[in-house]
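Researcher: I'd like a structural prediction for the single chain below. Treat it as a standalone chain; there are no partners to consider.
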Amino acid sequence: MSLSSKLALAKEMIESAESNLRSAKQIILELAGTPSKNIYTKLAESLPESSSDGEDKIVEGVFNGQTMVDKNKKDYPVPANYASKSKLIPGDVLKLTIKDDGSFVYKQIGPVERKRIVGVLTYEDGQYKVIASGKAFKVLLASVTYFKGEVGDNVTIVVPEIEDSEWAAIENILPKELGEKD
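Model: Treating it as a single chain, here is the predicted structure.
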């Protein structure tokens, strides 16, 4: 077996092992329950009730990675482009104004403490993820396309400082030259 085919085989074996570990972690989270969802729901419960501002309805909620959850555990869709552009992460508090014409206007009113980490962009089971700090973080497709990310790119992501999260926001794709080491 040639050196290049041995390297390719070793790389394939490592990728398979990493995929198996991620799958095993996901099964454990599903069986044990994801603590971050409970924390964000509890945070949402502490927010004020919905109110009206003239003809507009005002709702406050907590971003969970894809949607906003209000005090009554009702989900509101957050446009992926807005979440991506605003670099929303789980735990961020949002105010939703529902206009009398039915349109939704979101505003971030309480960002959670953040930290930045660097990882590698992957794609698995129809979902983009960034492998960083020994964990796979889901990221929005809108962020990947906005930054023109490709599988294997080094990516800077933003995650909650305190709480363990399954979601992250992409802050930047690092230039290829920075990812290469001599």
